[in-house]
Amino acid sequence: MRRLCHFHLNAAWMGRLLAIATVLAGPAMAQVTNPVEAARLMQGDAPTAAFQVHIDNWQQYPQKIWSFQHSRELFPTRRLTPVAPARRLPQALMPLEDLQVGSSEKPQTWPQMLESTHTDAVLVLQHGRIVYERYFNGMTPATPHLLFSATKSMAGLMAATAIAE
User: Which pTM was predicted?
Assistant: First the structure.
């Protein structure tokens, strides 16, 4: 496996990569404490109580795996209309599968970290190009996802990057 230092990554790029991954690391970074199978949540016409997501449990694990991608089904929301078409970003894809992101006490590869944090989506940019993009847990590029106050972190990261550039 390649070590982080073997990649041509500087500290700023690595910070952006981890910030983006952390923001989109979906539902939980804690260990599974509830045996309910996330894939069975809200399936069928009338899911049993154990597999229902509602106002009382939508922020609990594993229910938040479903609710963070389906908040419009739980709460009143409003879809925003874009003022202009989205600009496609160029791609310069890189393999990150061997990237080491864990600590020396608990080494992890990039894919292991994404799985252990229940990440729903990750997009890594470098110099305005997409270098890595993956979707999990039924997420797609068009799926709305609840970000909570992580939105502030994303806005701050983008503003700091714009100022630095």
Answer: 0.66
